[in-house]
Amino acid sequence: MRPTHLTGESADYVSAREELQQAEIELMRHRERVAELRRKLPLGPVVEDYTFEEGPADLQAGDAPTRTVRLGDLFTGPGRDLVVYHLMYGKKQSEPCPMCTMWCDGFNGVAHHVAQNVDLAIVAAADLPTLRAHARDRKWTNLRLLSAGSGSFKYDLGSEDAEGTQDSTVSVFTRDDGGSVRHVYSGHPRMSDDIDQRGIDLLSPVWHLLDLTRRGRGDWSAALSY
Asked: Which among 68, 46, 6 has a CA at the least distance from the CA of 179?
């Protein structure tokens, strides 16, 4: 199937484009297989009902009163999974991570669509006023923002080391038939010795739009700006 109705395409271009299209089809099929394998994972362990600090739902309403919420409280209804994005901010990460910020900008835009199927929360090690100040700057009015404080949630899920160095991570949780919260899946940027920054790129469309162009990503950090 021709992707355009343009004329004047050279034979070399048509041949290369057909080869690329077959590769794209195979990639799509492989992504579907990976997604199916992820969906078929057996339930992980029951996890601690971790506590977080949360401020008013209205980001513009200040930072008080605060309340303590548990991991199990983040599920808004039966049969729903919970996706938590670990924002690199707090402890050794004294400034918010630009890449995490870019991703959360995107999450904020699609949060109302995601909420039709699953619950979504952003967790950072930063204290609540600091986290909410950054969120106000970014206009994250659609995101549930939580401070993990000094708790072990981020360490246990691999987004923080013993010294407080932060890493971006995405974690998925579900409830079993008995109501216990179970870990389903966590993904990290570092997948292997030779894949240090690409492990959760599917969370952002920015890289994929750049990958459509002849230049590609170039210097990936150049795409990150406030």
From this structure: 46
> How does DSSP classify residue 185?
E
What is the rounded distance in angstroms from the CA atom of residue 221 to the CA atom of residue 140? 22
What pLDDT score does 225 carry?
56
Contact between 150 and 80 (Cβ < 8 Å): no
Number of residues that make up the chain: 226
Task: Determine if the pTM surpasses 0.70.
Answer: yes
DSSP classification of residue 15: H
Q: State the burial class of residue 183 (Cβ atoms within 10 Å of its Cβ: 0-12, 13-18, 19+).
A: middle
| Short-list 121, 122, 125, CA closest to 150 | 125
Torsion of CA 10, 16, 22, 28, to 10 degrees: -110
Over the range 100-118, which residues count as b (16 or more CB within 10 Å of their CB) and which as e? bbbbbbebbeebeeeeeee
How far does the chain reach from its first CA to its final CA, in angstroms? 41
Cβ within 8 Å of residue 71, ≥6 positions away: 47, 48, 49, 50, 51, 52, 82, 153, 173, 181
Residue in 138, 133, 136, 60 with CA at minimum distance from that of residue 105: 138
Cα torsion for 185, 153, 188, 207, to the nearest 10°? 100
Write out pLDDT tens, residues 26-53: 999 999 999 999 999 999 999 999 999 9
